[in-house]
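Technical note accompanying the year-one report. For the benefit of new consortium partners, we illustrate the data format agreed upon in the data management plan: each record pairs a sequence with a structure-token string. No post-processing was applied to the example shown here.
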Amino acid sequence: MPPKQRITREMILERSFAMFCREGMEAVNARSVAKALNCSTQPIFSYYAGMNDLKTTLDQHAHELWAQTLEGASREGNWFENCCCAYLRFACEQPQLFAHLFMRVGKDTSAMGGPAEWREDMIRYECEAYDLNEANAQELCVRLLTYVHGLATVKATRMEPYTDDLTAQVHAVHSALKASL
């Protein structure tokens, strides 16, 4: 009977995801994961068809973490601003994941990477909360998301912490944009 493997699929995923969060997806390769686990590359390839399979799993895990963050945006107060603040917080707290999800050339990163329903919900929220027509609400959402994405990109690339000042900035810009419509 062959010996039981001491390295599990969960261990591989946990260590490689930690590496992905710290150093980015490009740092994740068979040798670096094996070194982090203090093993050969054999266990990796016994659980995953190849590195693309593992990286696809890591990408899915990153999307799930972002979806959980967005789901956690409070519906109390201004829900749209809360989603924008969650995006900024994610950029500050997970800069490598943020870069992977929202800063890749040729990848659609519109509307905070949320599903189409989120974009529709944001527009609907702005229509109802501020008595805006759909075109104005959509323009407001695009402008605020553009501002927030730029700010999040700066914060992620400089690896700066999330502060309450960012929440105040989002609120001020949102208010200014509403007033301009």
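Partners are asked to follow this layout when depositing records. The mean pLDDT is 90.
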